[in-house]
Amino acid sequence: MKTSLKNIAAVAILLAYAATAHAQLKGSALNYMLQRPRVAKQYADKKLFDHLFVDAGAGVNVMGYSHPEAGTFGQVNLGDWITPEHGWRLGVNAGYARTAGVKAKYAGLSLDYLMNITSLGQRGATYSARAFELYGIAGLDLATSRHEGNAEYGMGAHIGLRGQVALSPFTYFYIEPKIGLVSDRLSQAETWHGYRPLATTMVGLGYRLPETRLTGTGNSYRRFIDGLFVGMAAGPAFLANVDGKLVGDMGARLTGSVGRWFDNYNALRLSANISLVKQPGDNKVKAVGAQLDYLLNLHNAFGGINPDRWFWVNGVAGVSYNYTTDKMHDHKHVLGAGAGLQANVRMTRELSLTVEPRVDFYGDNYAQHTTSFRKKMDVVPSVLAGLTYTYQGRNLTAKPTDTWHSLGWHDHTFVEGAIGANVVVARKPLTNMSSYLMPQAYIGVGKWYSPVSGARLWAQVAKTQWSDNDDRYTHLTVGADYLLNLTNAFYGYRRNRAFDFTAAMGVNLSKREKRDTPYVGVDAALRGTWHVSRLMALFVEPRLMAYSSSYMPTSLSTTGVDLLANVNVGMQFNMDGYERSLAQRQVRDNGDWKRSSFTVAAGMTNRVGQLKTWKKYSPIARLGYTQWFSPYMAWRGNLQGMVSRKEGKSRYAQALAGADLMLDLTAYTYGYDASRPLAVRALVGANVGADYGNHYYSFAPDVHVGGQLAMRLTDHISLVAEPQVAYNLSARFSNKRRQRIMPQLMVGLDYSLQRSHRNADLDEAPEHPNVVSVSLGTGVNSENFGERRGLGQRLSFVADMSYGRWLDGVNGVHAGLSNSVIQRNGKGNESITSLHAGYMMNIKSAVTGESTADHTFQLTGIAAASLNIASWKNHDTKVAPGLMGAVQAGVMVAPNVELYLEPSATMFAKKIALTPKNHPVEGELKLSLGTKVNF
Q1: Entry pTM
Q2: DSSP alpha helices (H): ranges in 807-883?
C-alpha cells in the first residue's frame, strides 16, 4: 500500500512538472516577486574623509526624572559617511547638568554610529541628497565632571534622531534630540542603580563635502599687496566659569588687525587687542595683547572656490601674548590660544562686515584674582563685530569707468540728516565713556562736482559734558567741508556702486552756551556710505573737531587744544537726476501724472527741550489738498489743528492754514511710475493762524520742513507718514526760543483722484438730483470744554436732518435742521438748535472732471450759514448767527443709498454763550455717521 502511494505521488509530481514546464516565463523569477530585495547604496571609489563633515551646536539638557532642571552644553563633531546610508562621527562636548541639587560641570568625548534614514527610504542603488534629511544616531560617551573641587570620570550611552536642512550643497542646519543613560559618577549624585537618564536637544550649523564642488580658479595673489587685509572689530567679552557662573560679568574687547590671504583658502592674521573684563570684587582686568591667527575659508574649502560669494565663514585658530594688570597693579605676562568662526557679509568687492564669536584660553594669571578651571586656566569668550578691507588687486576690482553726467545744477546734490554722540578727547572721558557720551543731531546739504570732489554745508547741535561734575554745554556748529571720494579716486567712478568711502576736511563756527562770540574750529571725518538705492543711502561718519583750549572750560585737556570726537549715523537722499526729457515726455503723453489728492492725518508733536517727557506730547491733525503740476512737483494746501498738553495750569489750542511745496524724490530719481509701491517725498512750507490759551490770542505763523513716506495700498489710496520740524513764530514763546522748534509725526491716508478733461455730463443735473440725509454723532463744544473734566464729560450728542438738490454734476444747494445736546455743570443740559442753509459741492467731480454716478466712493463738501438757538434750564435763551463747513465721505451701499462719515465744524457769534466767556467766538467740532438717499 505504501509503495502504491509513493508511485502515485511520483506520477503526480512528473505530471505537474510537465504542465508547468510549458508555462515557464523568461528571465528570473525575482522579477515577478511582490517586493524586490533592497540593494545597499555605495560610494564609487570611496576614500577616507572624502565625505567629511564638521559641525557645531549648542543646546539644553535635562538629567534625572525627579525634579529635573535644565542645563546647557555645546558640542563640536567631525565625521565621515562610509556609504550614503552609514557613517560615523567623533564629538567633543562641554557644559553643565543639574540634578538632585547638584550642578556639575562636564566635558567629554562621544563616538556615534549614524544611519541616513532618508537614504534608506530612497529606491534604487544611487543616492541623491534631499533638502531635508533624517538621521538615526546611537553612540557611547566618555566624560569627566567636576563639582565643588571633586572630579569624576564616567561613561554613558545614547540614541537619538537628527533633522537636517540643507542651506546650500555644503552647509546645513540641524536639530538633534537624544536620550540616554549616564553613570552617577558624571552626575555626582548617587542612586541605588548607579545611573541616571539624560535627555538633550541641540541645534547647530555644519559643513560637509558635497558630491560635486565648484572648480573656479578664484583670485590670484601674485604680488605681495594682493590679498592684504586690515580690519577693526569690537564687542563684548567676559571671564567664563567664575564664582560658579558659567557666564561672567560683561566686559569689552577692541581689536585691530592686518593679514594676508596666500590663496583662496589660507591666510595669516596679526592682531593687537585691548581688553577689559571683570573679576569678582569689581576688580577689572586690563589687558593688551598680540595674537597670530590662521584663517581657513570654510566655504571655499568645502564648497569650492567662488570669488563672488556674498557670504562665507572663516575658521580661526591662533596663539597670543598678553600683558595684563588690574587695580592692584599686579602685572602679568601670559600666553594664550584661541579658536572661533568669522562670518563675513560682503558689502563691496573689497569691504566686508564681520562677526567673530571665539573662545580664548589663557594661563591662570590672565585674571590675577580668579580662575576659570582649577587655577590652571582662564577662559574668555567674546563676540567681535567689525569691518575688514581686503585689497584684491586692481585687475580684480577695477571696472570700466562709467560716464559722469550732470543734467543740471541739482544733479549729484544731496541732503542728509543724522543723530549721534560726542565726547571730549581726554583721558577721563575716554576711560569712562558711559558717563561722558552725549547726544547730537546733524543736518547737511552738499553737491558732487566730479566723481572725486565735492563740497557740503552742515549744521549740528550737540550737548557736551566737560567735567567730572556733570557740567554740560549745548553748542550749535555750522561748517563747510571739502569731500574726497576715496573709492572713486582709487577704483574709478561707477554709477551703481553699492558702497564707498569718503574723506572730509573743513572749517566751522561753533557757538556754545555762556559765550557770545563763536569759536573757529577745524574738522576731519571719514564716512562709509551704503547706497541702498539711487535715491537713498545710509552712512556712518566719525569726525574729529579741534578748537582753542578755552572752547571747553575744563582741565581734562592737557594739550592746549580742545578736541571733540563724535560719530553720526544717518540717512542721505540723493537728487540724482534721470533723463527727464525722455521720462517726462512718456508720462505727459498719457497724462497719468495729472492728479489731485486729499490727505487726512493725525499724530503727536512736542517742543525741543521737553522731548523726553511723554506727558508733554500733544495731539495734532491735518487735512490737506494736493495738486501735482509736474510728474515730481506739487503744491499742497493745509488746515491744521493742535491742542496742547497742560503747561502749568493752562493749555492752548492752535488753528493754522498754509501751503507746502512737495518734491517726489523717487519720481525725480527713477522717473514717474503710478504703480510704484513706495514713494519718498520732501516738503517745505509755511502756515498762518492763531493760538488761544490762558484767555488771550496770539498770531501763530510757522515755517516747516519735512518729508512724506507714501505706501500705495490701492490705485487711489496710500498710507502716508509725515515727519516734520516746524519753527513757530507765535508771541507766546517770545522768551522761550528753544520751544519754538516743534518736531511732529503724523500718520494718515491719502486719497488720489485722476484728473481728466471736463465731462459734458457734468453740465446737467444727475438722474436723481434730490438728496435727503439723516445723521447722528458726537462732538465737542467750546461752551463746556473748559469747565468739564475728562473727554467723556465734554462730548455732546448731535443729530441732523437735511435736504439738498444738485443743480448740475458739481454744484448744489443744501438746507437742514440740527441739534446738539451739551453736558453742563448744573441742572440739565444745554441744547443748541440750528437751522442751516448753503452750498453743496461734489468734490470728486470738481477735481476729476468726471461724473461719479457709477462710483462706489463719494466725496461731498458743504458750506452754509446758520441761525442758532441756545437754551438751558434757568438761563435765558440766546439766538446768534453762525457759519458751518462739513465734508461727507461716503460709500454707495445700494444704487441710490449712501452711508457716509461727516466731520464738521461750526463757528457761532459770541453772544450764543449762556455763561460769560472771554471768547471772541464760540465753536463746535462734530463727527457724525449718516445715511443719504437720492431720488
Answers
A1: 0.48
A2: 843-848
